[in-house]
Amino acid sequence: MNYGLYLSATGVLTNSYRQDVIANNLANAETVGFKRNMALFRERLTEAEALRRPDLSHPLLDRIGGGHLLSPTATDASQGELEPTGANLDVAIHGPGFFAVGQGGEMRLTRDGRFMIDSQGYLTLANSAGSRVLDRNRRPITLDGVMAHQLSISERGEITQDGQLIAQIGTFDVPDPAQLKKHGGTLMSYPEPAQVRPTVATLRSEFVERANVDPATEMAQLMEAQRQLEANANMIRYQDQTLGRLVNEVGKIG
């Protein structure tokens, strides 16, 4: 196997993947509560290192390395900018924590705080599925017979009508945000649901949290990934041409 071709091929594959991740971030730059993805890579061990066979080691090639491998995509959980909306059922979390909603019999976490009251009187997430918002006891919040404009939400998630407490929005946190798994529509899950614990988060009523995506930074990274992909593709072409000359010209000598 041509070692240079292999290394260049890994560069093409990893940078193509990186482009896809960045493009998805840019596509969701205006999605409320979206957390940007990060394409991660790791160095591939050489065969001698992977097999722990020093007898297979090559003094020249092993110093080049074994190329790149993809690592699981990570999520950047940093705070997004809070944007005022004037809608009293819009809520943003300032600091760590997540809202919880029920979907398909399972609990999902989200930073999207655009809420509404559905026809059955449940407080739901304003998404296509109408996922029901959960309280601290992981039960759906019901506001039957109450109009949205009559409600107010405090910094602790307490929903009141004319000063009377009706319900409280649950906020939750996880031990390791890096283990959160995305399910689309800003919804996420944690691999160990029992470790998802209620927490006291600071809420801002009539605000939403914007995506933590900086389009300028993402565009710069996208251009860098494109340049690296093109450089590796060019290296594949040059090495292919070199091999072609080796076979068609040098091979004819003698």
Order of helices and strands: HEEHHEEEEEEEEEEEEEEEEEEH
Q: Main sheet?
A: 5 strands, antiparallel
Rounded average pLDDT: 87
Please state the structural category.
Answer: alpha+beta
- What is the straight-line distance between the termini? 25 Å
pLDDT < 50 stretches: none
Strand count: 20
The figure for the number of domains is: 2
Helix fraction, binned, reads 25-40%
Structural write-up:
- By secondary structure, the chain is an alpha+beta fold.
- It folds into two domains: 3-76 and 213-252; 82-209, no CATH class.
- It is built from four helices and 20 strands.
- The chain has helices at residues 3-27, 47-51, 61-64, 215-248, and strands at residues 37-38, 41-43, 68-70, 74-75, 82-84, 91-94, 98-103, 106-110, 115-117, 123-125, 132-133, 151-153, 158-161, 164-168, 171-173, 181-184, 187-189, 197-198, 202-205, 207-209.
- Strands 7, 8, 11, 15 and 18 form a five-stranded antiparallel β-sheet that branches. Strands 12-13-14 form a three-stranded antiparallel β-sheet, with no helix packed on it. Strands 1-4 form a two-stranded antiparallel sheet.
- Helix 1 packs antiparallel against helix 4 (215-248).
- The model has no long low-confidence stretch (mean pLDDT 87).
